[in-house]
């Protein structure tokens, strides 16, 4: 995914440079002719990128709920949440027909109200456990008229709650999905007041455990609200999991992938000859490893050593990890990045060595 993003950035840069330089003529000017006034550089209203990513529209408008996450006690891997929403959106709002814009319909006050209502008192006056942490909106505009033509709502939910006896409990995935469905029905009705004809895709995102600093949260369910409808017409569970490599959890559930990673780790230690910290995070969809991110941390003596190690590790990855798995390798010291190697499932691998 990152490799595609890098290529997309290079494409955008080239386009911007081309636009800026269009005001300068390459033809020689005769002595008897007056040089024309240079044209004022202008940017296109729409910035196109590769077919795998959404184009955007100017001027940039920030999300209306920006900054709300800083006030919550829950840790949310915001990059995975944002990119995950866009990834799932492609099936409903294809990049060939839609442009992306930060959410403009749902305001901070609305989200605050939803959270408060969901934590409201019960009939006996006691507070009920609230599962809603945050709501993130993404908008999709029609390429034809630049008007709002689709929405994605990402509901961040926590499975943790305190029961009537004061004990801390955790909802199962199925229980959280059921409670999330009830919550979605109320939120959709509220959103529908201003957007009655816009199709909506709803995604439930379970926040990570409080003591999990490396493994992000994961998506557990999606729902589709058709145009002019007030409720979800189709629910679909999402089987997304993240595992830390190496760990007992991944060893128990995905033994083959765990053995493959252990071999990469042993070969890296053998090649380097000194201590090297190798940490991996694997993303599994429907029980299949789809993405593996490896971070190799050590104190390297030279840039050539970094280059040789990166090439060696890349070779091990290509031998041991199936080509259907997107792999990100980050080589770093404790204080700065040194190199990256990206192997996408489609297209050529990409390696970069930082020079400073």
How would you describe the overall organization of this protein?
The chain is α+β, with helices and mostly antiparallel strands and 356 residues long. It contains seven helices and 16 strands. The chain has helices at 2-20, 78-92, 108-118, 173-191, 248-253, 255-272, 303-320, and strands spanning 46-47, 55-57, 98-102, 132-142, 148-157, 160-162, 168-170, 200-206, 218-225, 234-237, 240-245, 277-285, 288-297, 326-332, 337-343, 350-353. Helix 6 (255-272) runs antiparallel to helix 7.
Architecture blueprint of SSEs:
Layout: H1 2-20, E1 46-47, E2 55-57, H2 78-92, E3 98-102, H3 108-118, E4 132-142, E5 148-157, E6 160-162, E7 168-170, H4 173-191, E8 200-206, E9 218-225, E10 234-237, E11 240-245, H5 248-253, H6 255-272, E12 277-285, E13 288-297, H7 303-320, E14 326-332, E15 337-343, E16 350-353
Parallel strand pairs: 2-3, 5-8, 13-14
Antiparallel strand pairs: 1-2, 3-4, 4-5, 6-7, 8-9, 9-10, 11-12, 12-13, 14-15, 15-16
Helix pairs in contact: 6-7
Q: Output the radius of gyration.
A: 24 Å
Helix content: 25-40%
Uncertain spans: 1-44
Strand order of the largest sheet: 1-2-3-4-5-8-9-10
What series of H and E elements makes up the topology?
Answer: HEEHEHEEEEHEEEEHHEEHEEE
Strand tally is 16
Which geometry do the CA atoms define? globular
